[in-house]
Prior knowledge:
Elements (H helix, E strand, L loop, with lengths): L1 H10 L13 H10 L4 E4 L8 H10 L5 E6 L3 H10 L4 E4 L4 H12 L7 H10 L14 H11 L4 H8 L3 H14 L5 H10 L7
Parallel strand pairs: 1-2, 2-3
Helix pairs in contact: 2-3, 7-9, 8-9
Amino acid sequence: MFREGLxxxxxxxxxxxxxxxxxxxxxVLDKIFKNxxxxxxxxxxxxxxxxxxxxxAIKANKIKISILILSMYPEEQYALRAIKYGAAGYIxxxxxxxxxxxxxxxxxxxxxxxxxxxxxxLLFSIKDNxxxxxxxxxxxxxxxxxEMLVKGKTISQIAEELNLxxxxxxxxxxxxxxxxxxxxxxxxxxxxxxxNIFNVT
Length: 201
């Protein structure tokens, strides 16, 4: 439904043509490897392979394509990681349609589309001596599972949503706790509230 609405918005711009679509991260990669596209509008949260994993695969294979992340997640949660992995822009699904069109046009011309706040954070993040917070040390998958845990989802719910085994999710949870020097999910939730991540209250 969201993709249909997105195509409707884009169809109103005469200089933009939607030529393909995909429902999963793997499907995106399959099509990217077989066909040539000018620009990819990519979501972070997809069944199976996440948007960030798709980004890394595209970068690793040196595929020339401009990528705009369009996500439900606020930019402070994932934009920095997305830009580092090669995305040319990041906007949220709550953005106005004219902002989306503007971002696509700017990126298509070789530009980038990120907020001033994210640009500033990006500059600071590349300093070698920057001290990372515990949650910033997590892998992309661990970070995704951390968010789901602190928002109250069970191991089995996470496994089903991400198409992973319960054992795999449990292993990720253990690694998250170890990296963040915490012991329980309750402590993860307390950390998220204290550090104002994932909009947990």
